[in-house]
Design brief:
61 residues; 3 helices; 69% helix; 0% strand
Length: 61
């Protein structure tokens, strides 16, 4: 997440998930929204890993 947050700290204008978590957990102090936004990449990774496991790609390594 540090790579995405760094863009916002040095003056970038992009709205990535890391930036949204940083803004809501920092100055806005909106921790429930920051936690909800942080769940998006976690859910995406779980879905991806489940799909990889079901296809049997891990057994072929």
């Amino acid at each position: 997440m540090g790579d995405y947050i760094t863009v916002n700290i040095v003056g970038g204008t992009s709205q990535m998930l890391g930036n949204l978590v940083f803004v809501n957990a920092g100055a806005a102090n909106n921790l429930p929204l920051a936690a909800a936004i942080a769940m998006i990449p976690i859910v995406v990774m779980l879905v991806l890993l489940t799909a990889i496991r079901r296809t049997g790609a891990l057994e072929n390594l």
